């Protein structure tokens, strides 16, 4: 820590899984994410300059960001500049600091390494400015950085989960009201993540297209968001849309219904019904939202066929990244090994895989 003029304060923000509720956040719908025990760490100390000097251990890179000239530069430091810009827009009195970043959230795996970085930075910058921000504000500023500086038109799920996670619980977040309920997870079940090892070069372009298609469908149906359409009104809504937009609409409306049902299954301890809902979510993402790719479908099928798996599906925006599977904790290691071995035989390399635990959201680490 020889780089720091003063004694740094250290902040952490977790990555996230999403149990169910995909491509629903930007449609004003429900999602069910949980923060996980893979964290991004940010150490920060004031430097009495009008600049942020930042070092990334993961990228082995450094950058200097002029606080009086914040603009996207098309590089990794945009995450840092973007968070600073959102905070300044919101009237938070940011001043110069030295920042060191080290993240254990795997990059490009669909577990929100970017959100974890943005949220950790937002916690660090607000705390250094003496501002005690609530988790929703932190999530909004982090999302704004991603939307405006990184150029990814994401919803709020990832940043919200990272900022507001609760230990051993999922969050059932209504993205229209931004109200979340805490849903305790069953202690004898675990979530397994297996990376498909596919990184789709056009993922963010495809994501933007899906988002635009949903917005057009909402407009055609005269609603603000597709999330406003009740499941009972779906048949008539579908009749009012051309085939393509109708599929997107069907995914969104049925996926929101699956999240609502899943919250009930969780509180009733009906884990096999939760698993079935995860399987149905995958089919809808593959067939109606059309955001899966062939290797991911193959990995999901392998997981679903593995004895002991309650349910499995693609996770996140799509076109690659991790698959999530739900299994009894006592068998989790063996089940993970089986899935990894079968998928490795298919793709010719061992995929990254891990079992995760739900943790609390971002905060300062008191050393
Ligand atoms: C990405 C985005 C989220 C959400 C998911 C799909 O992770 O960052 O906002 O839209 O895709 O559910």
Description:
This protein has 367 residues and is of the alpha+beta class. The protein has 2 domains: 9-183, Ribosomal Protein S5, domain 2; 186-356, GHMP kinase, C-terminal domain (Alpha-Beta Plaits, 2-Layer Sandwich). It is 40% helix and 25% strand. The strands form 2 sheets. Strands 1, 2, 3, 4, 5, 6, 7 and 12 form an 8-stranded mixed β-sheet that branches. The chain has a 4-stranded antiparallel β-sheet with strand order 9-10-8-11. Strand 9 and strand 10 (320-328) form a beta hairpin. Helix 2 packs across helix 3. The two termini are 14 Å apart. The relative contact order is 0.18. The structure holds alpha-D-galactopyranose. Alpha-D-galactopyranose binds next to helix 4.
Per-chain topology:
Blueprint: E1 9-20, E2 30-46, E3 51-56, E4 61-66, H1 78-89, E5 97-103, H2 113-128, H3 135-150, H4 157-164, E6 169-174, E7 179-184, E8 189-199, H5 203-220, H6 234-239, H7 243-268, H8 271-287, H9 294-305, E9 309-314, E10 320-328, H10 332-347, E11 353-356, E12 363-365
Helix pairs in contact: 1-2, 1-3, 2-3, 2-4, 3-4, 5-7, 7-8, 9-10
The structure holds alpha-D-galactopyranose.
Alpha-D-galactopyranose is lined by residues 22-23, 25-26, 154-155, 157-158, 316-317.
């Amino acid at each position: 820590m020889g780089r720091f003029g003063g004694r740094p304060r250290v902040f952490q923000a977790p990555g996230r899984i999403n149990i169910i509720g995909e491509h629903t956040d930007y449609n004003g719908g429900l999602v069910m994410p949980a923060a996980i025990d893979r964290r991004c760490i940010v150490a920060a100390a004031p430097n009495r300059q009008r600049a942020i000097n930042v070092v990334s251990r993961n990228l082995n890179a450094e950058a200097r960001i002029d606080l009086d000239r914040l603009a996207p530069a098309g590089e990794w430091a945009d995450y840092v500049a973007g968070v600073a810009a959102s905070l300044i827009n919101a009237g938070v009195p940011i001043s110069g600091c030295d920042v060191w970043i080290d993240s254990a959230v795997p990059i490009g795996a669909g577990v929100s390494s970017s959100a974890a970085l943005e949220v950790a930075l937002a916690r660090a910058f607000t705390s250094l400015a003496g501002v005690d921000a609530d988790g929703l504000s932190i999530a909004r500023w982090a999302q704004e950085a991603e939307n405006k500086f990184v150029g990814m038109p994401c919803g709020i799920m990832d940043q919200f989960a990272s900022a507001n996670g609760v230990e051993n619980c999922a969050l059932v977040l209504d993205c229209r009201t931004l109200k979340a309920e805490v849903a305790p997870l069953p202690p004898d079940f675990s979530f397994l993540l297996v990376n498909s090892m596919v990184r789709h070069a056009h993922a963010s372009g495809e994501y933007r297209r899906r988002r635009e298609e949903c917005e057009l469908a909402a407009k055609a149906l005269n609603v603000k968001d597709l999330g406003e359409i009740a499941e009972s009104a779906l048949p008539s809504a579908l009749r009012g849309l051309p085939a393509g937009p109708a599929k997107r609409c069907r995914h969104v409306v049925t996926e929101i219904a699956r999240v609502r049902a899943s919250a009930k299954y969780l509180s009733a301890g009906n884990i096999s019904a939760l698993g079935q809902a995860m399987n149905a979510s995958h089919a809808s993402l593959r067939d109606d939202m059309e955001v899966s790719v062939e290797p991911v479908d193959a990995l999901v099928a392998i997981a679903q066929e593995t004895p002991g798996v309650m349910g499995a599906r693609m996770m996140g925006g799509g076109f690659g990244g991790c698959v999530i599977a739900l299994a009894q904790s006592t068998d989790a290691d063996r089940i993970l090994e089986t899935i990894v071995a079968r998928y490795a035989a298919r793709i010719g390399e061992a995929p990254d895989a891990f079992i995760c635990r739900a943790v609390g959201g971002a905060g300062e680490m008191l050393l």
